[in-house]
Write a structure and sequence with these properties.
The chain has 16 helices and 16 strands. By secondary structure, it is of the alpha/beta class. It folds into 3 domains: about 30-95, Elongation Factor Tu (Ef-tu), domain 3; about 100-370, Rossmann fold (3-Layer(aba) Sandwich); about 380-505, Lysin, CATH 1.20.150.20. The relative contact order is 0.10. The model has no long low-confidence stretch (mean pLDDT about 95).
């Protein structure tokens, strides 16, 4: 008869119990009480955390949004029509994350990282949480490198630096997206990764943006994150955070990124919709009380990191749509107070043919001057004030008053400067070209050129410089960060440009 000791039996039972424990799925499970309009109320997920991912049948992901006494409010990041009352919901124990890295560059994806461009799955070994805390003050350094947009009016009067947040604000159809797209196109060969987050835009508009970026060779360094007008509100709400998470991956690797949020008014509306459906108390304009925090925690993530952390940066261009120029509405004032300056686009300027339709008086950059190219600072230093004064004079002159010669001369130069700052869409200019053109305007070299011929002069002059005076262009490029370049007449760069303008003017026939 075999003898089995008590110790052996005990060790076998202990082993069985240990293995049995590991096979049990200890995740929390709840039940759907009601579902509709992109949200679900779930009973039973007592241990779930705010912002934790939950899974519905069919692999649909949700996000714990409201933690109440007897139920959990979940926002559904997918097709809520496929979810029914009584369905089981599993808590996943993780925060919402998106794929990051080189795999997302050049792709058109949704906020969860699923491809929308028909180029196959996004294969990435790394992910990042959608919501992270922004770098603190000690982890940053002051903005000091320029982020050239290639737009004369912006780079001269409201310059943007790497790590800055510059708001683009104006009524609908005033060219807000065009400025952002030009800035993306201008990053070609600069090593800057670009992220275009489309929130609540028409699918046809997004498709035309992607087409423009592709035609101009910009998609090779750009990621387009799409949550269009037909997308459920939860996805519109998280899209900007997802885009920022993808950019942060590169920032922490010491690289530079440009993120465009087009536009945050639509994100605020999506957040308002979710909050009202969740029965959160409405505040001003029916937005929930924390809509400011919704935008501030997003935009605080744009930063210029310190050298110890690799000196990477995220520059952001949030876009806000105003109604009838109402900048004192709730969302516009919120975002103006979070950002480091704004480019204000005015409909009447736009319709009178001034493109970009930037109002020089109330557009401002609170940081970029520190990052502006020195030569540009020297030629465009007084340009904003001059243009604002010109607008005042223009209004005064319309009264039909007789003007003295000096005032008339200032008006004439103002008209020429306005003409000079006009720029076609999708043709960003190199900063050296901008410096030479603005120098010619502010120094009075165009005072004898008819206003209608100013743009022809600019085209001809740049053609002349590139084809016949390449050495002048190279000289300005070499000295563009000298404190005296384009300021003192005896500086070699200033001298060369003045001589080149004189030579061109002798042959120019309007």
């Amino acid at each position: 008869m075999l003898k089995i000791s008590a110790d052996e039996i005990a060790s076998v039972i202990q082993n069985e119990i240990a293995n049995f424990e590991s096979q049990i799925d200890v995740r929390e499970v709840g039940t759907v009480l009601e579902v509709g309009d992109g949200i679900a109320r779930v009973h039973g997920l007592t241990g779930v955390s705010a912002g934790e991912m939950v899974e519905f049948p069919g692999g649909i992901i949700g996000l714990a949004f409201n933690l109440e006494e007897s139920s959990v409010g979940v926002i559904i990041l997918g097709d809520y029509l496929k979810i029914n009352e009584g369905d089981q919901v599993k808590a996943l124990g993780t925060l919402l994350s998106v794929p990051v890295g080189d795999a997302v560059v050049g792709r058109v994806i949704d906020p969860l990282g699923n491809p929308l461009d028909g180029k196959g799955p996004v294969v990435s070994s790394e992910t990042r949480p959608v919501e992270v805390i922004a770098p603190g003050v000690a982890e940053r350094k002051p903005v000091h490198e320029p982020m050239q947009t290639g737009i004369k009016a912006v780079d001269a009067m409201t310059p943007v630096g790497r790590g800055q947040r510059e708001l683009i604000i104006g009524d609908r159809k005033t060219g807000k997206t065009s400025i952002a797209i030009d800035a993306i196109i201008n990053q070609k060969d600069s090593g800057v990764k670009c992220f275009y987050v489309a929130v609540g835009q028409k699918d046809s508009s997004i498709a035309s943006v992607v087409r423009e970026l592709t035609e101009r060779g910009a998609m090779s360094y750009t990621t387009v994150i799409v949550s269009g007008a037909s997308t459920p509100a939860p996805l519109q709400y998280i899209a900007p955070y997802a885009g920022t998470a993808m950019a942060e991956y590169f920032m922490w690797k010491g690289q530079h990124c440009l993120v465009v949020y087009d536009d945050l008014s639509k994100q605020a509306q999506a957040y308002r919709e979710l909050s009202l459906l969740m029965r959160r108390p409405p505040g001003r304009e029916a937005y929930p009380g924390d809509v400011f925090y919704c935008h501030s925690r997003l935009l605080e993530r744009s930063a210029k990191l310190s050298d110890a952390l690799g000196a990477g940066s995220i520059t952001s261009l949030p876009i806000i749509e105003t109604l009838e120029g109402e900048v004192s509405a709730y969302i516009p004032t919120n975002v103006i107070s979070i950002t480091d300056g704004q480019i204000y686009l005015q409909p009447d300027l736009f319709f009178s043919g001034v493109r970009p339709a930037m109002n020089a008086g109330i557009s401002v950059s609170r940081v970029g001057g520190a990052a502006q190219v020195k030569a540009m600072k020297n030629v465009a230093g007084g340009l904003r004030l001059d243009l604002a004064a010109f607008r005042e004079l223009e209004a005064f002159a319309q009264l039909g008053t007789d003007l003295d010669a000096m005032t008339q001369a200032r008006l004439d130069r103002g008209y020429r400067m306005v003409e000079l700052l006009k720029q076609n869409q999708y043709v960003p200019l190199n900063v050296v070209d901008q410096i030479m053109v603005i120098f010619a305007g502010t120094r009075g070299y165009l005072d004898t050129v008819p206003v209608s011929a100013v743009r022809k002069w600019e085209e001809g002059f740049l053609d002349f410089i590139h084809n016949k005076k390449k050495e002048v262009w190279d000289l300005v490029d070499q000295h563009k960060n000298d404190g005296d370049a384009m300021k003192k007449n005896d500086h070699p760069a200033t001298k060369a440009v003045m001589d080149a303008i004189d030579e061109f003017n002798r042959s120019f026939r309007p």
